[in-house]
Specification:
The complex is a heterodimer of chains A (255) and B (367). With 255 residues, chain A is of the alpha/beta class. Chain A contains ten helices and ten strands. In chain A, helix 3 packs across helix 4 and helix 8 packs across helix 9. Chain B is an alpha/beta fold and 367 residues long. Classes of the chains: A alpha/beta (255), B alpha/beta (367). At the A-B interface, helix 2 and helix 3 of A face helix 1 and helix 8 of B.
Chain lengths: 255, 367
């Protein structure tokens, strides 16, 4: 553990990942404070997922430094794994197992006791209103419910940090809203949330956001700050200015 | 440990809930044994028989009649000497020859052993041996009808096979079949179930968890080890019950060698899945990499000895070749580890190499 990493949930310094001649993540430096909801924005292919994969230990960085929950990503990846939860873009539950079985499986993987698994299963089922379908195969659930369940399962072992990689893609606005309620609940309980999205309305819900363009962080701050700096009225405009400056210019200068 | 147990349970659920696949896995071995068994052992019917009877009398006539009446044999010619025999076999006119010794009836009446030579065309060894079995059955029936006390054999049938004298491939299909079934279950199913987790994204969830890669692999493949073991038992049982395939050697040794072969196949499956990212590619790779060589180059259907040299060399790296040799040794010749340690070592080394290779590929995927 490094002293300057201790008070941050996540801290990176010049984090870089190169695939052949392509630099997917290019000297990215940022800090996520404990208990914060940190938005990771960017167009498809901007490097969000690569960055998350490096922070979760799925991918070794090419260069730069990073600490997650105070642990060095190079040397302490095993320690990191215990402290984080992860929900991938592709949904991480087993379709042919029931709701209960999925929860029990991950409970076992994270070494929870039998009592803990039972209590938390009940809590999740009640919170999500899934009690009546607890014995149904997950594959039969609507996508929105699956995603809420996957999020709850990612939090099952009460990690200090949870990584959500486009958790709400493909679901309706109402379910997205409910999903964000879950995110807030987790943040209030003290969990740090790093979430990637390309829905700009969701960016407004974050405490702070970073906007990635071609592997680099082009803007970082609270939604209010970013809008003010860019002279934009919505995160949507901020995003378009950064990602497609020529498009923003064509629409006329912002006030 | 608890985590590993949870993984095992999950994998077992996957298998049990995929009813259709499970059904195929369980019944395929049985159906295959039966299909192969009957297609390789062609029907014994209408067998063309030549009788050589130097001294015809009431006894030899009765025996000849019994063969003619049974419906299985058709006596095409009766001669006093064996001069025409070579020609009849050569032109495929005769398939079985019954050669009475001179004075056969007298010897029998005097209570001396009476020699009866049975010659079979064994170009197709299985058919050949079945014909011999029928000949023996007719003679045994004759003996018991005459009231010969059991055990005191009066007629000594001397069995000779022509063209393939050692009859080496009798019942040879069972070991090869085991190899094939185990390849399907262990290599193919393992490769599929691992790549499926990659496709659905659940593999990432497992990799991000505190589980070690070896735990993930052990958790995934152990249930298939179990199914593979059950299939070996099923194949052996059907082989025994339906086809009376002999089991000369130690069953325990055979099961141990079978387990070793399953391990080879499992590690091959893991290697395939580590190198492929979709189920479709994994399926093709498993078919080309395991099924085809097992069928063609293990000596299961086509004898290795009669293959061109280059193919024989290639067959050295086919695990099934070694397993088929081992299983045949144990089942048909009754030999033990003393004779099979070299082949066993080859299989063990293959497992080791494949496991190291797949562990390395698995790690590379993590980077």
């Amino acid at each position: 553990m490094t002293s300057h990493a201790a008070d941050s949930a996540i801290r990176t310094n010049g984090l870089t990942r190169v695939f052949g001649t392509f630099t997917a993540v290019d000297h990215v430096t940022f800090d996520v404070r404990p208990g914060e909801v940190f938005g990771f924005l960017g167009a498809n292919g901007a490097g969000k997922t690569t960055a998350i994969r490096m922070l979760t230990g799925l991918l070794t960085p090419s260069s730069g430094e990073a600490w997650v929950a105070g642990h060095d990503v190079y040397r302490e990846s095993e320690a990191i794994k215990r402290d984080i939860g992860y929900m991938s873009q592709r949904f991480s539950l087993y379709d042919d197992l029931t709701v209960r079985e999925n929860i029990r499986l991950y409970g076992g993987i994270y070494d929870l006791s039998r009592d803990q698994i039972r209590d938390r299963t009940e809590r999740i089922l009640t919170r999500l209103g899934l009690s009546h379908t607890a014995h149904d195969a997950v594959g039969a659930l609507p996508l929105g419910w699956k995603q809420k369940l996957a999020f709850s399962v990612a939090l099952l072992h009460e990690p200090r940090i949870v990584f959500l990689d486009e958790p709400t893609s493909g679901v309706d606005p109402i379910t997205r809203r409910q999903f964000w309620e879950l995110i807030y609940e987790a943040a209030h309980a003290g969990t740090t949330v790093l979430v990637t999205t390309h829905y700009m309305d969701e960016a407004e819900y974050c405490d702070r956001v970073s906007i990635m363009v071609s592997g680099r962080i082009e803007a970082l701050g609270s939604p209010a700050e970013l809008k003010k700096n860019a002279g934009a009225s919505s995160m949507d405009e901020v995003f378009v200015q950064l990602v497609r400056p020529e498009l923003a210019a064509a629409k006329g200068p912002a006030t | 440990m608890k985590a590993l147990f949870g993984l095992l349970r999950k994998e077992t659920y996957h298998i049990l809930r995929d009813r259709r696949t499970l059904f195929v896995l369980i019944f395929m071995p049985i159906v295959q044994v039966i299909l192969f068994g009957f297609s390789i052992r062609t029907d014994v019917r209408d067998v063309r028989m030549v009788v050589i009877d130097p001294t015809p009398d009431a006894t030899t006539l009765e025996i000849r009649d019994r063969f003619a009446a049974g419906g299985i044999f058709r006596v095409i010619s009766v001669a006093r000497n064996a001069r025409s025999l070579e020609h009849l076999f050569g032109t495929d006119s005769a398939q079985v020859a019954l050669v009475f010794e001179p004075g056969f009836g007298e010897h029998l009446a005097a209570g001396d052993p009476a020699q009866l030579l049975v010659i079979t065309d064994a170009t197709e060894p299985n058919t050949g041996s079945s014909r011999q079995m029928y000949v023996n059955a007719v003679i045994q029936q004759y003996e018991s009808d005459r009231g010969t006390p059991p055990g005191s054999v009066r007629i000594t049938p001397q069995v000779r096979s022509r063209f393939n004298p050692t009859r080496e491939s009798t019942n040879l299909f069972v070991p090869g079949l085991m190899a094939m079934v185990l390849n399907i279950i262990a290599a193919l199913m393992t490769a599929l179930s691992l790549t499926r987790e990659k496709e659905t994204g659940t593999m990432e969830a497992l990799l991000v968890s505190p589980l070690r890669p070896w735990q993930i692999i052990v958790g995934k493949v152990t249930p298939y080890l179990g199914i593979g073991f059950v299939s070996v038992l099923a194949v052996l049982m059907v082989a025994k019950l339906v086809f009376q395939v002999p089991m000369q050697g130690s069953l325990v040794l055979l099961l141990a060698e079978g387990t070793l072969f399953i391990l080879v196949a499992l590690s091959l499956g893991i290697l395939i899945s580590a190198r492929t990212s979709s189920q479709r590619v994994a399926l093709l790779a498993a078919m080309m990499g395991t099924m085809l060589p097992t069928q063609m180059l293990s000596g299961f259907i086509f004898p290795l000895e009669s293959m061109p040299r280059p193919l024989q060399w290639i067959s050295i790296v086919v695990p099934a070749r070694w397993f088929v040799f081992i299983a045949r040794g144990i089942m048909l010749k009754g030999v033990g580890l003393v004779y099979l340690w070299r082949e066993t070592l080859v299989l063990g080394a293959m497992t080791l190499v494949l496991l190291v290779a797949s562990a390395r590929s698995f790690k590379v995927r993590l980077q």
